[in-house]
Amino acid sequence: MKKSFSCTERELYALCLSGLETCSQNIDSLKRISPLYTPEYVETQKRRVIETMNSFDHRQRVAQKGKLRALLSTSAEMALGVWRRLRLYVKNSSDPDILKQNLNEMGLMYLEKAKRQQWEEYLKMLQSGQSYIVNNKAALLENQNMPESFEDEYAAAQADFLSKYDAYLRTTIEGKLSTENHIESLNEMYEDLQKMFAAGREAFADDKTKANLFRITSTLNAINNTGWAGIKGKVKDTQGNLAVIEGLEIEVVETDDLVLQEPDGSFMFNHMAAGTYTLLLRAPGYKEELAPVEVKTDTYTNIEIEMFADEVDDPVED
Question: Quick check: helix, strand or coil at residue 57?
């Protein structure tokens, strides 16, 4: 779900509370436009804004997801180490004519993507290895090539990975649903404010100064003490092409504001005060990137950032 407002979440809270205070001070005029607008309505909306602010801790969710990802990454590395030992046993027990076939059977075709932490490929690789052990156990054990205890060791490493992956996946799905519900609440708050402001402008149609108090842009500018300023960015790959990266998060370190890429690969931060900021970009399988940005009043700073894959050397042939 996309947000219907162009300001940051923090600004939306301030915008709503400031707008509700303006409406409270002019409630009799608004009541003449619609009986919906009463002191009780304003107080209910204020509580709603505050409760929404307190109910969603983005930083905590990001920290929890990061912790689970770190545990998953550690488990994956351990499982990969066990899988590599199996690869050695397969090489030592296979006829040269069918070695390539056997390596593919044990999941070699999934290795490159697995190294880039594409977890579904990790899962396929480990499952292929486990199936190979079951189907070729006698050949692997011949001449004491593979220890008898290795089958249980492999199964334990695979089970640990599956457990960590399941926890990470559930948290990711739950976080996405929670975020979507949260954005829906924010959109509803913004839409209610727009309707209330429209009523205010109608109530003061003959008083431009008063009517201007019921405009989103003027209220935001008063909050920020600045004009329309922000950051417009593009993410590019190592060949200089515009890139859409799955799971990419772009955060302003100084304000904790977070955005995702648009379908065309661009991103934008709106309504920022003038100053120096640092963008943090992170995505599965890529190195984290830090980019300093200078924002000036009444303009957008354009920036292009190059992302690099987090390569891990692992030659197929030892």
Answer: coil
